[in-house]
């Protein structure tokens, strides 16, 4: 079949329908390019999400959990116990010791020595400073008597149960979380005495 029979347009130098094929080709390239961009953006979003999730997981995997407990087992060590029951070490940011609502200072040697002055029986004490690291599985009495007796240690029990407030602010090794544990006075006689039977 000749060009004349097919209706070739000599004036414009193209066959009928040639522009149609070129348009289809451009549309296919545009669709392909658009799909590639969408896939790249989706991959970036997934990657950012995975990185963020991994960071959160890593933070949780080393999160410390400090707890303060009072315990009065008759005949055993008794007083205030600090426990790190979390998965990572705790970094002490700050601490506040108060007695009868009045601030004494931080939980450090000078403040605790001031606290123990005037007591009939001087309790043992473990103190710490700012930025001190409390290890995972740490369990230590902060203020205690070695062999608790209800009559001999009434003054210390009253101080710890009903007068003393201890607040400890801490964070993980990552920093910036501002965790806090607080031991507040217990106005009611809710002391649990454990006896050996």
Topology pattern, helix = H, strand = E: HHEEEEHEEEHEEE
- Tell me the quaternary state: single chain
Strand content: 25-35%
Lateral strand order in the biggest sheet: 5-7-2-1-10
Mean pLDDT: 83
**What ranges have pLDDT less than 50 throughout 5 or more consecutive residues?**
189-197
Number of strands: 10
**Structural class, judged by helices and strands?**
alpha+beta
Radius of gyration: 36 Å
Apparent shape? rod-shaped
The first-to-last residue Cα distance is: 114 Å
Percent helix range = 25-40%
* Total of DSSP H or I helical runs spanning 4+ residues: 4
Largest sheet data: 5 strands, mixed
Question: How would you characterize the overall build of this protein?
Answer:
The protein has 197 residues and is α+β, with helices and mostly antiparallel strands. The strands form two sheets. The protein has a five-stranded mixed sheet, covered by helices on one side. Strands 3, 4, 6, 8 and 9 form a five-stranded antiparallel sheet that branches. The longest helix has 44 residues. The C terminus is likely disordered.
Could you give a short description of this structure?
This protein has 197 residues and is an alpha+beta fold. It has helices at residues 3-6, 18-61, 109-116, 154-163; strands at residues 66-73, 78-84, 90-99, 102-105, 124-125, 133-134, 139-145, 164-171, 179-183, 193-194. It starts with a helix and ends with a strand.
């Amino acid at each position: 079949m000749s060009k004349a029979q097919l209706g070739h347009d000599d004036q414009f130098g193209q066959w009928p329908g040639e522009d149609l094929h070129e348009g289809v080709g451009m549309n296919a390239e545009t669709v392909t390019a658009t799909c590639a961009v969408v896939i790249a953006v989706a991959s970036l979003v997934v990657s950012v999400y995975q990185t963020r999730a991994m960071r959160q997981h890593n933070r949780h995997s080393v999160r410390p959990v400090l707890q303060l407990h009072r315990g009065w087992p008759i005949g055993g060590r008794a007083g205030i116990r600090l426990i790190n029951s979390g998965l990572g070490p705790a970094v002490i940011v700050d601490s506040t010791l108060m007695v009868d609502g009045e601030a004494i200072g931080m939980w450090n040697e000078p403040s605790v020595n001031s606290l123990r002055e005037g007591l009939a029986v001087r309790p043992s004490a473990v103190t710490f400073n700012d930025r001190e690291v409390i290890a995972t599985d740490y369990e230590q009495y902060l203020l205690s008597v070695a062999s608790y007796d209800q009559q001999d240690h009434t003054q210390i029990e009253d101080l710890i149960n009903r007068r003393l407030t201890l607040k400890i602010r801490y964070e993980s090794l990552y920093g910036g979380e501002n965790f806090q544990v607080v031991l507040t006075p217990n106005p009611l006689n809710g002391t649990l005495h454990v006896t050996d039977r």
